[in-house]
Amino acid sequence: MLISFEGIDGAGKTTQINKLVTYLNSRNQEVLTLREPGGTEVAEKIRTILLESRQEISPIGELLLFSASRTELVQQVIIPALAVGKTVILDRFFDSTTAYQGYGRGIDLLLLQSIISISTCDTVPDITIYLDIEAEKALNRIFAKTSIPLTFENDEPDRMERSGLEFYRNVRQGYLDLITRNKERFICIDALLPEATIHRQIIAFLEERFPVFLL
Fold first, then answer.
1. Taking the complete model, does pTM exceed 0.70, yes or no?
2. Domain count, the chain
3. What is the tens place of the pLDDT at every residue in 9-50?
């Protein structure tokens, strides 16, 4: 099974992924967790360029770098893991590209879909868990961790996090549009709920949708 977690930065994906992994391990599930960009030697180097670079990267260049990283991850890790029956949990997948590069950077959505199809080998998650939070609250979470005001004047946040409030508003809208068009694949959860409540909702949904998976 392939499970992806999505949401704008600051939504709490990492926390919920860790909780789900702990739960699945307790049910004797063999789980592989991966992040995007990353997961292979080449992909991790691309991640450094995308997130830690102080250089400007054009929207198309950014898209192609993310896609190159994804191609390596899908072909070298995800497809082989699924083939031997592992549960793969992804911290971001191609929905992030639609939301961030499409809605956030303004790249044509039809062009995006062609590149996504190529980079994923048409691999689609069985379920996508989206943690929803308003852009202002998400960014306040991000900057509160480093005591950085919401001015984006400090260089400590990564390159994506420095994209600005309007960018993140557009990204969130992109996710909401994706959910509207893919209701069967997405579960949308309020990211401001207590962590334990969010976890219980995720487990309840998986038990309802995939009862055999959790036996």
1. yes
2. 1
3. 999 999 999 999 999 999 989 999 999 999 999 999 999 999
Domain limits for position 48: 2-209
Tell me the pairing of strands 31-35 and 127-132.
Answer: unpaired
For residue 55, which amino acid is it? Q
Partnered with residue 35 across adjacent β-strands are: 91
- Is residue 125 assigned to a domain? yes
Nearest partner of 34 among 64, 4, 9, 10, judged by Cα = 4
Answer whether residue 133 shows pLDDT above 80: yes
Sign of the C-alpha dihedral computed for residues 37, 42, 47 and 50 taken in this order:
negative
pLDDT tens column, 139-151? 888 777 654 444 4
CATH number at residue 37: 3.40.50.300
Radius of gyration of the chain (CA): 17
Strand arrangement of the beta sheet that strand 31-35 belongs to: 31-35, 87-91, 2-6, 127-132, 186-190
Is residue 6 domain-resident? yes
CB count in 10 Å sphere of residue 142:
18
Query: 34: number of CA atoms within 13 Å, CB side?
Result: 31
Instruction: Using the Cα atoms of residue 123, residue 17, residue 96 and residue 39 in order, give the sign of their dihedral.
Output: negative
pLDDT at 145: 61
Does 39 map to a domain? yes
Q: Which residues pair with 128 in a beta bridge?
A: 4, 186
Largest CA distance in the chain: 50
Residue 215 maps to a domain:
no
